[in-house]
Protein backbone atom coordinates (compact mmCIF):
# COMPACT_ATOMS: atom_id res chain seq x y z
CA UNK A 1 0.00 0.00 0.00
CA UNK A 2 1.40 3.42 -0.88
CA UNK A 3 2.02 6.07 1.72
CA UNK A 4 -0.55 8.44 0.17
CA UNK A 5 -3.26 5.79 0.28
CA UNK A 6 -2.76 5.55 4.05
CA UNK A 7 -3.23 9.25 4.73
CA UNK A 8 -6.27 10.34 6.69
CA UNK A 9 -8.58 12.74 4.79
CA UNK A 10 -7.75 15.58 7.18
CA UNK A 11 -4.02 15.09 6.57
CA UNK A 12 -4.42 14.91 2.80
CA UNK A 13 -6.48 18.09 2.88
CA UNK A 14 -3.92 19.86 5.05
CA UNK A 15 -1.09 18.96 2.68
CA UNK A 16 -2.96 19.76 -0.51
CA UNK A 17 -2.80 23.55 -0.29
CA UNK A 18 0.00 26.00 0.60
CA UNK A 19 0.35 26.49 4.34
CA UNK A 20 0.29 30.09 5.55
CA UNK A 21 1.46 31.98 8.63
CA UNK A 22 -0.87 32.23 11.62
CA UNK A 23 -0.95 35.87 12.79
CA UNK A 24 -3.66 37.46 14.92
CA UNK A 25 -6.04 34.54 14.43
CA UNK A 26 -5.82 34.66 10.62
CA UNK A 27 -3.98 32.56 8.06
CA UNK A 28 -1.94 34.98 5.97
CA UNK A 29 0.83 34.93 3.37
CA UNK A 30 4.30 36.19 4.17
CA UNK A 31 4.49 39.91 3.52
CA UNK A 32 7.05 39.45 0.75
CA UNK A 33 5.22 36.41 -0.66
CA UNK A 34 8.13 34.01 -0.10
CA UNK A 35 7.56 30.30 0.43
CA UNK A 36 9.69 27.20 0.98
CA UNK A 37 9.18 23.47 0.56
CA UNK A 38 9.16 21.03 3.45
CA UNK A 39 10.61 17.64 2.50
CA UNK A 40 9.74 14.06 3.45
CA UNK A 41 13.13 12.71 4.60
CA UNK A 42 12.14 9.13 3.73
CA UNK A 43 11.45 9.90 0.08
CA UNK A 44 13.21 13.26 -0.48
CA UNK A 45 9.95 14.45 -2.05
CA UNK A 46 8.14 17.73 -1.34
CA UNK A 47 5.37 17.37 1.23
CA UNK A 48 3.97 20.88 1.22
CA UNK A 49 4.75 24.48 0.36
CA UNK A 50 4.91 26.74 3.39
CA UNK A 51 4.94 30.52 3.79
CA UNK A 52 8.38 31.79 4.78
CA UNK A 53 8.22 34.38 7.54
CA UNK A 54 10.61 37.34 7.48
CA UNK A 55 11.55 39.95 10.06
CA UNK A 56 8.56 42.00 8.88
CA UNK A 57 6.24 39.07 9.60
CA UNK A 58 7.88 38.57 12.99
CA UNK A 59 7.02 42.18 13.84
CA UNK A 60 3.43 41.65 12.69
CA UNK A 61 3.13 38.60 14.95
CA UNK A 62 4.68 40.37 17.96
CA UNK A 63 2.29 43.29 17.56
CA UNK A 64 -0.63 40.87 17.45
CA UNK A 65 0.63 39.04 20.53
CA UNK A 66 1.16 42.32 22.42
CA UNK A 67 -2.34 43.54 21.58
CA UNK A 68 -3.80 40.21 22.70
CA UNK A 69 -1.94 40.49 26.00
CA UNK A 70 -2.82 44.05 26.90
CA UNK A 71 -5.49 44.93 29.47
CA UNK A 72 -8.99 44.86 28.09
CA UNK A 73 -8.33 42.11 25.54
CA UNK A 74 -10.41 38.91 25.61
CA UNK A 75 -7.31 37.02 26.74
CA UNK A 76 -6.54 39.36 29.63
CA UNK A 77 -10.15 39.13 30.78
CA UNK A 78 -10.14 35.33 30.78
CA UNK A 79 -10.05 33.99 34.33
CA UNK A 80 -7.52 31.37 35.43
CA UNK A 81 -10.40 28.91 35.76
CA UNK A 82 -11.47 29.52 32.17
CA UNK A 83 -7.86 29.15 31.00
CA UNK A 84 -7.73 25.85 32.86
CA UNK A 85 -10.87 24.60 31.12
CA UNK A 86 -9.50 25.72 27.75
CA UNK A 87 -6.19 23.91 28.25
CA UNK A 88 -7.98 20.72 29.24
CA UNK A 89 -10.22 20.95 26.18
CA UNK A 90 -7.19 21.34 23.91
CA UNK A 91 -5.61 18.22 25.41
CA UNK A 92 -8.74 16.23 24.68
CA UNK A 93 -8.88 17.59 21.12
CA UNK A 94 -5.29 16.46 20.49
CA UNK A 95 -6.19 13.01 21.81
CA UNK A 96 -9.04 12.88 19.32
CA UNK A 97 -6.61 13.69 16.50
CA UNK A 98 -3.52 11.77 17.55
CA UNK A 99 -3.38 9.84 14.29
CA UNK A 100 -3.55 13.06 12.26
CA UNK A 101 -0.70 14.64 14.23
CA UNK A 102 1.26 11.37 14.07
CA UNK A 103 0.98 11.11 10.28
CA UNK A 104 2.07 14.70 9.79
CA UNK A 105 5.01 14.31 12.16
CA UNK A 106 6.13 11.03 10.62
CA UNK A 107 5.99 12.53 7.13
CA UNK A 108 7.76 15.76 8.07
CA UNK A 109 10.33 14.43 10.55
CA UNK A 110 10.79 10.81 9.46
CA UNK A 111 10.17 9.06 12.78
CA UNK A 112 7.95 6.00 12.93
CA UNK A 113 4.21 6.38 13.33
CA UNK A 114 4.42 4.65 16.70
CA UNK A 115 6.96 7.19 17.97
CA UNK A 116 4.95 10.09 16.56
CA UNK A 117 1.79 8.84 18.27
CA UNK A 118 3.69 8.82 21.54
CA UNK A 119 4.84 12.42 20.99
CA UNK A 120 1.27 13.55 20.31
CA UNK A 121 0.10 11.78 23.45
CA UNK A 122 2.72 13.64 25.50
CA UNK A 123 1.52 16.96 24.06
CA UNK A 124 -2.08 16.14 25.03
CA UNK A 125 -1.03 15.19 28.55
CA UNK A 126 1.02 18.39 28.90
CA UNK A 127 -2.07 20.50 28.19
CA UNK A 128 -4.04 18.63 30.84
CA UNK A 129 -1.23 18.75 33.39
CA UNK A 130 -0.75 22.50 33.08
CA UNK A 131 -4.52 23.01 33.12
CA UNK A 132 -4.27 22.22 36.81
CA UNK A 133 -1.63 24.88 37.37
CA UNK A 134 -3.61 27.70 35.75
CA UNK A 135 -5.61 28.21 38.96
CA UNK A 136 -2.75 27.61 41.36
CA UNK A 137 -0.13 30.24 40.55
CA UNK A 138 -0.52 31.89 43.91
CA UNK A 139 1.74 34.24 45.78
CA UNK A 140 2.26 34.40 49.52
CA UNK A 141 1.11 36.63 52.37
CA UNK A 142 4.00 38.07 54.35
CA UNK A 143 3.42 39.30 57.94
CA UNK A 144 5.10 42.68 58.37
CA UNK A 145 5.11 45.27 61.11
CA UNK A 146 7.30 47.88 62.80
CA UNK A 147 6.60 49.60 66.13
CA UNK A 148 3.48 51.69 65.75
CA UNK A 149 2.79 50.72 62.18
CA UNK A 150 1.09 47.70 60.59
CA UNK A 151 1.34 46.54 57.01
CA UNK A 152 -0.29 43.99 54.79
CA UNK A 153 2.26 42.52 52.38
CA UNK A 154 1.88 39.82 49.76
CA UNK A 155 3.45 38.52 46.58
CA UNK A 156 1.71 37.56 43.38
CA UNK A 157 2.77 35.86 40.17
CA UNK A 158 1.94 37.69 36.97
CA UNK A 159 2.40 36.92 33.29
CA UNK A 160 5.49 38.28 31.55
CA UNK A 161 3.87 39.42 28.31
CA UNK A 162 4.95 38.20 24.87
CA UNK A 163 6.95 34.96 24.68
CA UNK A 164 8.90 33.90 21.59
CA UNK A 165 9.11 30.11 21.43
CA UNK A 166 11.81 28.80 19.07
CA UNK A 167 11.76 25.04 18.71
CA UNK A 168 13.86 22.32 17.03
CA UNK A 169 13.05 19.63 14.50
CA UNK A 170 13.63 16.45 16.52
CA UNK A 171 10.33 16.58 18.49
CA UNK A 172 8.36 19.22 16.58
CA UNK A 173 4.98 18.88 18.31
CA UNK A 174 6.27 18.11 21.79
CA UNK A 175 8.75 20.98 21.76
CA UNK A 176 6.07 23.37 20.51
CA UNK A 177 3.90 22.23 23.41
CA UNK A 178 6.80 22.81 25.83
CA UNK A 179 6.82 26.50 24.85
CA UNK A 180 3.15 27.23 24.18
CA UNK A 181 1.57 25.51 27.17
CA UNK A 182 3.40 27.12 30.11
CA UNK A 183 3.22 30.47 28.32
CA UNK A 184 -0.55 30.52 28.00
CA UNK A 185 -1.07 28.78 31.34
CA UNK A 186 0.53 31.82 32.96
CA UNK A 187 -1.49 34.24 30.81
CA UNK A 188 1.23 35.18 28.32
CA UNK A 189 0.85 35.33 24.56
CA UNK A 190 3.14 33.49 22.16
CA UNK A 191 4.90 33.75 18.83
CA UNK A 192 5.97 30.22 17.93
CA UNK A 193 8.83 29.72 15.45
CA UNK A 194 9.03 26.04 14.38
CA UNK A 195 12.14 24.64 12.73
CA UNK A 196 12.18 25.09 8.97
CA UNK A 197 12.69 21.34 8.52
CA UNK A 198 9.47 20.42 10.38
CA UNK A 199 6.80 23.16 10.38
CA UNK A 200 3.70 21.06 9.76
CA UNK A 201 2.60 19.91 13.22
CA UNK A 202 3.11 23.41 14.65
CA UNK A 203 0.79 24.78 11.97
CA UNK A 204 -1.72 21.99 12.60
CA UNK A 205 -1.57 22.79 16.32
CA UNK A 206 -2.26 26.45 15.51
CA UNK A 207 -5.33 25.38 13.54
CA UNK A 208 -6.55 23.27 16.46
CA UNK A 209 -6.03 26.10 18.97
CA UNK A 210 -8.25 28.38 16.91
CA UNK A 211 -10.92 25.68 16.78
CA UNK A 212 -10.65 25.27 20.56
CA UNK A 213 -11.43 28.94 21.11
CA UNK A 214 -8.01 30.44 21.86
CA UNK A 215 -8.49 34.18 21.18
CA UNK A 216 -6.86 35.80 18.15
CA UNK A 217 -3.23 36.81 18.65
CA UNK A 218 -2.66 34.64 21.72
CA UNK A 219 -0.72 32.01 19.73
CA UNK A 220 0.90 33.00 16.43
CA UNK A 221 2.90 30.54 14.28
CA UNK A 222 5.75 31.68 12.03
CA UNK A 223 7.38 28.99 9.88
CA UNK A 224 10.61 30.21 8.38
CA UNK A 225 14.36 30.29 8.73
CA UNK A 226 16.90 31.77 11.14
CA UNK A 227 16.24 35.37 10.15
CA UNK A 228 12.69 35.12 11.51
CA UNK A 229 13.95 33.66 14.78
CA UNK A 230 16.66 36.32 15.07
CA UNK A 231 14.06 39.04 14.53
CA UNK A 232 12.07 37.69 17.48
CA UNK A 233 15.18 37.59 19.66
CA UNK A 234 16.04 41.18 18.76
CA UNK A 235 12.48 42.53 19.10
CA UNK A 236 12.14 44.98 21.99
CA UNK A 237 8.50 44.07 22.53
CA UNK A 238 9.26 40.39 23.18
CA UNK A 239 9.56 39.78 26.92
CA UNK A 240 11.02 36.28 26.89
CA UNK A 241 12.67 33.84 24.50
CA UNK A 242 12.24 30.12 25.16
CA UNK A 243 14.60 28.10 22.97
CA UNK A 244 15.46 24.45 22.50
CA UNK A 245 18.29 23.63 20.13
CA UNK A 246 22.04 23.70 19.73
CA UNK A 247 24.42 25.32 22.19
CA UNK A 248 25.92 27.37 19.35
CA UNK A 249 22.55 28.98 18.53
CA UNK A 250 21.69 29.27 22.22
CA UNK A 251 24.74 31.46 22.79
CA UNK A 252 23.64 33.76 19.95
CA UNK A 253 20.16 34.02 21.43
CA UNK A 254 21.54 34.87 24.86
CA UNK A 255 23.67 37.62 23.32
CA UNK A 256 20.80 39.02 21.28
CA UNK A 257 18.38 38.97 24.20
CA UNK A 258 20.79 41.04 26.28
CA UNK A 259 19.97 44.14 24.20
CA UNK A 260 16.85 44.74 26.27
CA UNK A 261 17.52 42.12 28.98
CA UNK A 262 14.55 39.96 28.01
CA UNK A 263 14.25 36.74 29.94
CA UNK A 264 15.74 33.66 28.32
CA UNK A 265 15.38 29.93 28.95
CA UNK A 266 17.55 27.52 26.99
CA UNK A 267 17.56 23.75 26.64
CA UNK A 268 20.68 23.11 24.60
CA UNK A 269 23.03 20.36 23.49
CA UNK A 270 24.08 17.20 25.24
CA UNK A 271 26.64 14.42 25.07
CA UNK A 272 25.35 12.16 27.80
CA UNK A 273 27.57 9.55 29.46
CA UNK A 274 26.05 6.12 30.12
CA UNK A 275 28.02 4.11 32.69
CA UNK A 276 27.70 0.33 33.08
CA UNK A 277 29.41 -1.28 36.09
CA UNK A 278 30.36 -4.96 36.11
CA UNK A 279 27.70 -5.77 38.70
CA UNK A 280 24.85 -4.41 36.58
CA UNK A 281 21.97 -6.49 35.27
CA UNK A 282 23.69 -6.81 31.92
CA UNK A 283 20.63 -7.87 29.96
CA UNK A 284 18.78 -4.75 31.12
CA UNK A 285 21.86 -2.55 30.73
CA UNK A 286 22.48 -3.69 27.15
CA UNK A 287 18.87 -3.05 26.16
CA UNK A 288 19.02 0.28 28.00
CA UNK A 289 22.25 1.29 26.26
CA UNK A 290 20.70 0.63 22.84
CA UNK A 291 17.60 2.62 23.77
CA UNK A 292 19.74 5.42 25.21
CA UNK A 293 21.80 5.80 22.05
CA UNK A 294 19.37 5.01 19.24
CA UNK A 295 16.09 6.48 20.49
CA UNK A 296 14.44 8.84 17.98
CA UNK A 297 17.07 8.01 15.33
CA UNK A 298 19.68 9.28 17.78
CA UNK A 299 18.25 12.78 17.32
CA UNK A 300 17.63 13.51 20.99
CA UNK A 301 19.67 15.82 23.20
CA UNK A 302 19.45 13.50 26.25
CA UNK A 303 20.53 10.36 24.41
CA UNK A 304 23.34 8.34 25.97
CA UNK A 305 25.84 8.56 23.14
CA UNK A 306 28.99 8.05 25.27
CA UNK A 307 29.00 4.50 26.65
CA UNK A 308 31.46 3.61 29.42
CA UNK A 309 31.65 -0.07 30.41
CA UNK A 310 33.74 -1.61 33.20
CA UNK A 311 36.55 -3.51 31.53
CA UNK A 312 35.78 -7.10 32.59
CA UNK A 313 32.27 -6.96 31.03
CA UNK A 314 33.15 -4.65 28.12
CA UNK A 315 33.26 -7.31 25.40
CA UNK A 316 29.99 -8.85 26.56
CA UNK A 317 28.20 -5.50 26.57
CA UNK A 318 29.60 -4.47 23.19
CA UNK A 319 28.48 -7.77 21.66
CA UNK A 320 24.98 -7.24 23.07
CA UNK A 321 24.62 -3.61 21.98
CA UNK A 322 25.95 -4.46 18.50
CA UNK A 323 23.36 -7.23 18.19
CA UNK A 324 20.63 -4.83 19.29
CA UNK A 325 21.79 -2.25 16.73
CA UNK A 326 21.76 -4.81 13.92
CA UNK A 327 18.24 -5.92 14.89
CA UNK A 328 16.78 -2.42 14.46
CA UNK A 329 14.65 -2.15 11.32
CA UNK A 330 15.52 1.03 9.44
CA UNK A 331 12.82 2.18 7.04
CA UNK A 332 9.92 4.47 6.20
CA UNK A 333 8.00 5.58 9.28
CA UNK A 334 4.72 4.45 7.70
CA UNK A 335 5.94 0.83 7.57
CA UNK A 336 4.62 -0.87 10.76
CA UNK A 337 7.81 -2.93 11.02
CA UNK A 338 10.04 0.15 11.10
CA UNK A 339 11.73 0.93 14.41
CA UNK A 340 14.07 3.63 13.08
CA UNK A 341 13.18 6.15 10.40
CA UNK A 342 15.50 8.42 8.41
CA UNK A 343 17.45 11.36 9.71
CA UNK A 344 15.61 14.63 9.31
CA UNK A 345 17.43 16.22 6.38
CA UNK A 346 20.23 15.91 3.85
CA UNK A 347 22.33 18.29 5.93
CA UNK A 348 21.96 16.17 9.06
CA UNK A 349 22.57 12.98 7.09
CA UNK A 350 25.84 14.30 5.70
CA UNK A 351 26.88 15.56 9.12
CA UNK A 352 26.41 12.17 10.80
CA UNK A 353 28.15 10.29 7.97
CA UNK A 354 31.04 12.73 8.22
CA UNK A 355 31.53 12.15 11.94
CA UNK A 356 31.57 8.36 11.54
CA UNK A 357 33.93 8.51 8.57
CA UNK A 358 36.16 10.83 10.59
CA UNK A 359 36.25 8.37 13.49
CA UNK A 360 37.37 5.56 11.15
CA UNK A 361 40.07 7.83 9.73
CA UNK A 362 41.22 8.57 13.29
CA UNK A 363 41.64 4.85 13.98
CA UNK A 364 38.35 3.88 15.64
CA UNK A 365 36.54 0.61 14.90
CA UNK A 366 32.96 0.22 13.68
CA UNK A 367 31.37 -2.75 15.44
CA UNK A 368 27.87 -2.17 14.02
CA UNK A 369 26.65 0.16 11.31
CA UNK A 370 28.56 1.99 8.60
CA UNK A 371 29.70 5.50 7.63
CA UNK A 372 27.73 5.09 4.39
CA UNK A 373 24.08 5.91 3.71
CA UNK A 374 21.72 3.00 4.39
CA UNK A 375 19.57 3.43 1.25
CA UNK A 376 19.87 5.06 -2.15
CA UNK A 377 16.81 7.24 -1.54
CA UNK A 378 15.97 8.89 1.77
CA UNK A 379 18.22 10.07 4.58
CA UNK A 380 18.56 6.65 6.18
CA UNK A 381 21.51 5.77 8.40
CA UNK A 382 22.20 2.51 10.22
CA UNK A 383 22.53 2.46 14.02
CA UNK A 384 26.26 2.58 14.62
CA UNK A 385 28.50 1.41 17.48
CA UNK A 386 32.14 2.52 17.60
CA UNK A 387 35.00 1.26 19.79
CA UNK A 388 38.69 2.15 19.86
CA UNK A 389 37.71 5.72 20.61
CA UNK A 390 39.83 8.23 22.52
CA UNK A 391 38.48 11.12 24.56
CA UNK A 392 39.83 13.73 22.16
CA UNK A 393 38.16 12.40 19.00
CA UNK A 394 35.42 14.58 17.55
CA UNK A 395 33.01 11.65 17.55
CA UNK A 396 33.46 11.50 21.33
CA UNK A 397 33.37 15.22 22.17
CA UNK A 398 30.82 16.68 19.74
CA UNK A 399 27.05 16.37 19.76
CA UNK A 400 26.45 14.34 16.58
CA UNK A 401 22.65 14.04 16.82
CA UNK A 402 22.45 10.73 15.03
CA UNK A 403 22.27 7.01 15.94
CA UNK A 404 25.93 6.76 16.94
CA UNK A 405 27.28 5.31 20.21
CA UNK A 406 30.94 5.42 21.15
CA UNK A 407 32.15 2.89 23.75
CA UNK A 408 35.17 3.07 26.04
CA UNK A 409 36.20 0.63 28.81
CA UNK A 410 37.03 1.83 32.34
CA UNK A 411 38.53 0.33 35.49
CA UNK A 412 37.67 2.48 38.51
CA UNK A 413 34.82 4.65 39.71
CA UNK A 414 36.95 7.76 40.01
CA UNK A 415 38.26 7.24 36.48
CA UNK A 416 34.82 6.96 34.90
CA UNK A 417 33.32 9.88 36.84
CA UNK A 418 36.15 12.13 35.65
CA UNK A 419 35.70 10.97 32.06
CA UNK A 420 31.90 11.33 32.19
CA UNK A 421 32.13 14.90 33.45
CA UNK A 422 34.85 15.84 30.94
CA UNK A 423 32.44 17.63 28.60
CA UNK A 424 31.06 21.11 28.11
CA UNK A 425 27.57 19.62 28.30
CA UNK A 426 25.48 18.52 31.27
CA UNK A 427 22.00 17.58 30.14
CA UNK A 428 21.70 13.90 31.08
CA UNK A 429 23.65 10.91 32.36
CA UNK A 430 23.03 7.34 33.46
CA UNK A 431 24.41 4.65 35.77
CA UNK A 432 23.78 0.89 35.76
CA UNK A 433 24.61 -1.12 38.91
CA UNK A 434 22.74 -3.59 41.11
CA UNK A 435 24.38 -1.90 44.10
CA UNK A 436 22.04 1.03 44.74
CA UNK A 437 24.69 2.66 46.89
CA UNK A 438 27.05 2.71 43.92
CA UNK A 439 24.34 3.90 41.56
CA UNK A 440 23.27 6.80 43.78
CA UNK A 441 26.81 7.73 44.79
CA UNK A 442 28.05 7.89 41.21
CA UNK A 443 24.84 9.56 40.07
CA UNK A 444 25.35 12.32 42.63
CA UNK A 445 28.80 13.03 41.18
CA UNK A 446 27.61 13.44 37.60
CA UNK A 447 27.09 17.02 36.48
CA UNK A 448 23.82 16.69 34.61
CA UNK A 449 20.26 17.96 34.90
CA UNK A 450 18.76 14.46 34.64
CA UNK A 451 20.45 11.29 35.91
CA UNK A 452 18.88 7.91 35.21
CA UNK A 453 19.74 4.96 37.46
CA UNK A 454 19.21 1.49 35.94
CA UNK A 455 16.95 2.94 33.26
CA UNK A 456 16.98 5.50 30.45
CA UNK A 457 14.35 7.80 28.93
CA UNK A 458 11.94 7.23 31.82
CA UNK A 459 10.17 10.60 32.06
CA UNK A 460 7.00 12.35 33.11
CA UNK A 461 5.44 15.75 32.46
CA UNK A 462 5.54 16.47 36.21
CA UNK A 463 9.37 16.38 36.28
CA UNK A 464 11.57 19.38 35.46
CA UNK A 465 14.14 19.06 32.70
CA UNK A 466 17.14 21.16 31.79
CA UNK A 467 20.90 21.15 31.95
CA UNK A 468 24.11 22.08 33.71
CA UNK A 469 27.03 23.91 32.09
CA UNK A 470 26.56 24.65 28.37
CA UNK A 471 23.40 22.55 28.19
CA UNK A 472 21.25 25.53 29.06
CA UNK A 473 19.53 27.89 31.46
CA UNK A 474 16.38 27.23 33.43
CA UNK A 475 14.01 24.28 33.63
CA UNK A 476 10.95 23.18 31.68
CA UNK A 477 7.94 21.15 32.81
CA UNK A 478 6.75 20.38 36.31
CA UNK A 479 5.90 23.17 38.71
CA UNK A 480 9.36 24.63 38.03
CA UNK A 481 8.39 25.03 34.40
CA UNK A 482 6.18 28.02 35.20
CA UNK A 483 8.84 30.02 37.04
CA UNK A 484 10.47 31.36 33.86
CA UNK A 485 7.10 32.41 32.42
CA UNK A 486 6.03 34.69 35.28
CA UNK A 487 7.17 37.77 37.16
CA UNK A 488 7.00 37.92 40.94
CA UNK A 489 5.47 41.13 42.27
CA UNK A 490 5.60 42.24 45.92
CA UNK A 491 2.80 44.48 47.22
CA UNK A 492 3.12 46.30 50.56
CA UNK A 493 0.23 48.34 51.95
CA UNK A 494 0.19 50.22 55.23
CA UNK A 495 -2.91 49.62 57.30
CA UNK A 496 -4.44 52.81 58.76
UniProtKB/TrEMBL annotation:
SUPFAM superfamilies documented for this protein: ALDH-like
Transmembrane segments: none
Keywords recorded for this protein, A-Z: Oxidoreductase
A Gene Ontology molecular function term of the record: oxidoreductase activity, acting on the aldehyde or oxo group of donors, NAD or NADP as acceptor
Ranges of residues in domain Aldehyde dehydrogenase: 27-491
Active site: 267
Family, similarity comment: Belongs to the aldehyde dehydrogenase family.
PANTHER family: ALDEHYDE DEHYDROGENASE-RELATED (PTHR11699)
Protein name: Phenylacetaldehyde dehydrogenase
Amino acid sequence: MSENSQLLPAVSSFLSSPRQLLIDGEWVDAKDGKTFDTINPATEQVLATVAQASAVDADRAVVAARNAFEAGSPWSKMSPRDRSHLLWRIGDMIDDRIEEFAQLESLDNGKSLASARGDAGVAAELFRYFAGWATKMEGTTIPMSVPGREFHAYTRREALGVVAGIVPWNFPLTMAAFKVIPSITAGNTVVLKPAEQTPLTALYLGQLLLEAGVPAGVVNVLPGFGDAGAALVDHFDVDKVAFTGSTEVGKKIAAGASKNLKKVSLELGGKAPNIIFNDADLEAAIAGAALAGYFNEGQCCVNGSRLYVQRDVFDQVIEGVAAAAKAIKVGDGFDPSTTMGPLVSQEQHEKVMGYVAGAVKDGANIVAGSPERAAETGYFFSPTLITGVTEDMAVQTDEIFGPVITAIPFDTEDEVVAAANNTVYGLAAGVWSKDLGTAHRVGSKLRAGTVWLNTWHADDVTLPRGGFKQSGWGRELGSFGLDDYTELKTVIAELR
